[in-house]
Amino acid sequence: MEYKRLIAGFSQKEGKTGSWNGTYSYEEDLTGLFVRACDNGADEVLIWDRSETDEDHEAVIGAIRQAARAIDAPVIAGGRVKRLEDVKKYLYAGAAAVFLDVSLESNEDMLKEAADRFGPEKIYAWLPEASCMAKGSVYRELGASMLILGMKELLSLQEMETAGLSCLIAGDGYEGEAAGSWLKQALGSSQVQGAVLSLSEEETGRLMEAKQGFKREGIPVDTFETSIQWKDFKKNENGLVPVIVQDHKTEEVLMLAYMNEEAFCATLSTGRMTYFSRSRQELWIKGATSGHFQYVKSLRIDCDKDTILAKVRQVGAACHTGNRSCFFTTLAEKEDKKVNPLRVFEDVFQVILDRKEHPKEGSYTNYLFDKGIDKILKKLGEEATEIVIAAKNPDPEEIKYEIADFLYHMMVLMAEKGLSWEEITEELANR
């Protein structure tokens, strides 16, 4: 199912963070706001760089880099694009895509150059005025993979529907648990893929509640849905199911707790781990008192359907003793390797293979496959050159970005030639 994307929009200027429409009322740092939004249901985040000086611009780039490393969701950035170098800076900072305001003639001219250099998937066009609608198809032809409508006039949306152009729509936040009338109507359009929301501080922490409201309105949004109903689980004599909790990144086992049906349903609805306390005989939201919440990343059931495995983002300590994990006492241990880099490479490679098997419109990976081996080799050569150039520059972020870009194109070549990571690592091990 294609879900509608809910994107939390923020601005950054002179060290202050606010809603993307330019108000700077938040005292909290940018990273904290982004983390809260993503923990509570934001599918992506958008940062509008409203800096006016070069010094402030570099500070915003640093804030984007910090935020992109702190959250799992994609970051969209833009706002202060004067030359192609600015697009590169946003991408190097960790942005998955960069938007260009096409009301500025220089940005319109830059669209094709940016799409050719960095790939269409990474370039969006921001349309702030209804007058930009007439050229929507032109912006797509120039290479913008997504159009963002910075206004909410119905006429603008109707024009996009008539032209058959997919887009994101930007506007104010939601009203209570359900969407505002304009947002419900916009997300009901087949052309609108999501919304950039200017959120109040309170709304930032209640996005999952808003999603539940959207779902009740029949709008397809990405919430936690169970593939097996509670009645099909095998409960113990007290009607409970044990839950093993792991850190979703490190896979460290954090704790063991229990759920009843109400706790299970609350966990799915809110995205926060909720348990049943056997000692107090009541529900408890992990972190409600300590602030050490557990945000759901995935829930799995074992083969006997009697134990749940939860992978979470743990805030602070999982154990009441203050330790990160409840399992901090070692009984017996044998040293082994804790990190397997191949897992990272394999995950990315599987996405590339999936694109080859199941092409997706607008995908840069499919663009490379469609162009064939010569285009793939040309890009690989270009990225190798970029590594050499980056290595001569003092900024370590550039060389990390270029090496990652090279490895991606190398994996596209591997997929094209039918090679696997297992074959490559086996060859290396034999040397």
Question: Would you mind describing this structure in some detail?
Answer:
This protein is an alpha/beta fold and 431 residues long. It is built from 15 helices and 15 strands. The protein has helices at 30-39, 54-70, 84-93, 105-118, 136-142, 154-163, 181-187, 201-204, 207-216, 261-270, 341-357, 364-371, 373-391, 396-417, 421-429, and strands at residues 5-13, 16-19, 44-49, 75-78, 97-101, 123-127, 146-149, 167-172, 192-198, 241-247, 253-259, 274-277, 282-285, 294-301, 308-314. The protein has an 8-stranded parallel barrel, surrounded by 7 helices. A 4-stranded mixed β-sheet has the order 11-10-15-14, with helices on one face. Strands 12-13 form a two-stranded antiparallel sheet. Strand 5 (97-101), helix 4 and strand 6 (123-127) form a beta-alpha-beta unit. Helix 1 runs parallel beside helix 2 (54-70), helix 2 (54-70) runs parallel beside helix 3 (84-93) and helix 11 crosses helix 14. The longest helix is centred in the C-terminal third of the chain and has 22 residues, at 396-417. The radius of gyration is 23 Å and the shape is globular. The two termini are 46 Å apart.
